[in-house]
Amino acid sequence: MADDVLTIGGETAAEIADSIRALIDRGDLTPGAALPSVRALAELVGVNRNTVVAAYRLLAAAGAVETAGRAGTRVAPRSDPAQEGFAADTVLRDIGTGNPDPALIPDPSHALSSLAGRPVLYGEPTIDPDLEAWASQWIAKDLPERAELRLTITGGAVDALERLFADALTRDDAVGLEDPCFLSALRTVRIGGYRPVPIPVDDQGMTVAGLRAALDAGVRAIVCTPRAQNPTGVSLTAERAAQLRAVLEQHPYVLVIEDDHFSMLSREPYHSIIGPGHRRWALIRSVSKFLGPDMCLAVTASDTETAERLARRLSPGSTWVSHLLQRLVLALVSDDAVLAGVERAARHYRARNDRFAAELTRLGLPTAAGDGLSVWVRVPAPARAVAEQLMRRGWLARPGDEFVLADPAATHRLRLTVHDLSDTDLARLAADVAASARAIAPSPEASTAP
């Protein structure tokens, strides 16, 4: 370790962090290797201790190191953050996917045949004019007081988040995220080198106290899901949204990003935390939930300055969204038959989730379905242990701690995607969840969960 320490250098936190990253990349520092204490490294490099603290914080935010207080700082194990989607190479029934039902995704074949037309060349507008006209109406009806809103097209919601963060933030800036949190948002923050700050979510959405605490902690941006919060399925109530807007009135330049990912499929009204006087904001609506994950397109509405900065990152012909894809999306959302199918899908997801929640409740596990593609299930035992029991019964479930930043209650939650199960399988899964929970926590005393 002594030889490795001698190669760490730099005068600023960023330079020291880059020096340590170079050691990790070369394999000189391997996963689990202990880094010097803050005092030791500050003395060795000849900088203030606060500079080393900031360097370690940068590394931790990027997932390169793990800090454990007095136990010190170590190189983080090389493991990919949890992501949405199917588990590879499993013979179990995967109920942790978070995917829409393939049978309910519109068939684009007919629309594809109508897309022939003039090719798009370098230097042309990044947004297809017809799609922009449709999207303007789609967004404006929910933001009627925003006469100055501007639209941008990106390659999905995560692409929009990355671009918004890159423009507004620098490494180690704090970002307020809902806790528990959407996996892709958390992954985007960590990979970008920003610091996630947890904002708890209750049954009405992001909490007021949590937002105040995050703002006091100096967050430069906040990501809020107004409907179908993933993983909980919670949607903002009108009262809660108004309370959050009131808090944000004192912080008009904090970038507020709303990810309305479920949009057309949601059974709940849209309530925004973006007040009419807020200066930096963005509303993202992707089409992936109702047109399919392969439709990598999102409409982002924002204030003029944010839109102009975002547009500068969308170079015509290189980083724009394909106009063929834009035209395909427009053709689908302009088709009455497709829209009727989207409405049927929305009813299906809610009905199946409601049925599963009712079955769990009947079996002694009170559950509310909420909105979205999955159900957030409270179990009276550690969720990972319950998930292991479910594996023995043929199911692959997703424990709640994969979504958590700080919320201890998530360790007693499962996020289950059940909308594609038959009635028989739905009942069997509910019975297996209840039996698995009882196997871990058979007595009332043992079943007490946060």
From TrEMBL:
Classification via CDD domains: AAT_like, WHTH_GntR
Ranges in a coiled coil: none
Pfam families: Aminotran_1_2 (PF00155), GntR (PF00392)
UniProt keyword DNA-binding, yes or no: yes
Keywords tagged on the record: Aminotransferase, DNA-binding, Pyridoxal phosphate, Transcription, Transcription regulation, Transferase
Molecular functions per Gene Ontology: transaminase activity
Domain HTH gntR-type: 10-78
Similarity comment: family membership: In the C-terminal section; belongs to the class-I pyridoxal-phosphate-dependent aminotransferase family.
Name the record gives this protein: Aminotransferase class I/II-fold pyridoxal phosphate-dependent enzyme
Originating organism: Microbacterium gawkjiense
